[in-house]
Design brief:
Shape: elongated
Number of strands: 6
Radius of gyration: 26 Å
CATH architecture of the largest domain: 2-Layer Sandwich
Number of helices: 7
Order of helices and strands: HHHEHEEHHEEHE
Helix content: 25-40%
Strand content: 15-25%
Largest sheet: 3 strands, mixed
Mean pLDDT: 85
Low-confidence stretches: none
Distance between the termini: 66 Å
Length: 186
C-alpha cells in the first residue's frame, strides 16, 4: 500500500531520515537498506508499506475505530476474502456519528426506573468511586451531587448521565477533588 506517509521522507524534498554515526552501529543493515530504498526509490514496490493493517468487511464500527486508533492510522483498507472492497477513514466514522441520533430525546421513563438504570451503569464503571456520588431524579431531571477525583471523571460521569434514556435534563453539582483519607489521624 502506498500512502502519503510513505512519501514523507524523500531525498527530493530533503526530508530523508538520517541516522547518526553512533546509532548506525546498532542499526540492522536490512532496516537501513529498506529506509534507503524508501527515500530514493522510484517504483511503487520500493516505496510502499509492506505491512498493511486491514479490517474485514463485516467488522463493527467500534472495531474499525479501535484499529485506526491503536495503529495511529487515518484510514484502513476493508477486505473480503483477501480482496480489497473499500477503504474507511476517520472522517467516515465522524460522519456516521454526526448523522446518528445520539443525544436525541428518548421516550421519558419514570423517575425511579431512570435512577435505577443510571445506578446500574455507574456501578459498572471501574474509573469511578461511586461512594462519593449521589444521583437524584425528579420529573426526568437528573441531578448529580458529590465528589469525583478528576475533571476527566466528572466529564465522563456527565456523559454517562446524558446517555440515560429518559433524562430530560442533567444538572451537574459535582465537585472535583476527593476528601483526604488521612484527616483526623494522630
Amino acid at each position: 500500500m502506498l500512502t502519503a506517509s510513505d512519501l514523507l521522507h524523500r531525498v527530493e524534498t530533503g526530508t530523508e531520515k538520517r541516522s547518526s554515526w553512533f546509532t548506525s552501529f546498532f542499526s540492522n543493515p536490512d532496516d537501513m537498506a529498506r529506509q534507503y530504498a524508501k527515500a530514493h526509490g522510484l517504483k511503487a514496490h520500493e516505496v510502499m508499506s509492506r505491512h498493511v493493517v486491514s479490517v474485514r468487511d463485516d467488522a463493527d464500527l467500534s472495531e474499525v475505530a479501535d484499529v485506526l486508533d491503536r495503529n495511529k492510522l487515518k484510514r484502513v483498507p476493508v477486505v473480503r476474502d483477501g480482496a480489497l472492497v473499500g477503504v474507511i477513514s476517520r472522517s467516515d466514522i465522524v460522519r456516521v456519528l454526526s448523522e446518528s441520533s445520539v443525544g436525541q430525546p428518548v421516550a421519558k421513563s419514570n423517575d425511579v426506573g431512570l435512577q435505577n438504570a443510571i445506578w446500574q451503569e455507574i456501578r459498572k464503571q471501574k474509573w469511578l468511586d461511586s461512594g462519593y456520588v449521589n444521583i437524584m431524579v425528579n420529573d426526568g431531571v437528573v441531578e448529580a451531587w458529590g465528589m469525583v477525583a478528576s475533571a476527566e471523571q466528572r466529564n465522563a460521569l456527565v456523559v454517562l448521565l446524558e446517555e440515560a434514556a429518559g433524562a430530560a435534563k442533567i444538572e451537574d453539582h459535582l465537585r472535583v477533588g476527593m476528601p483526604s483519607t488521612t484527616a483526623g489521624l494522630v
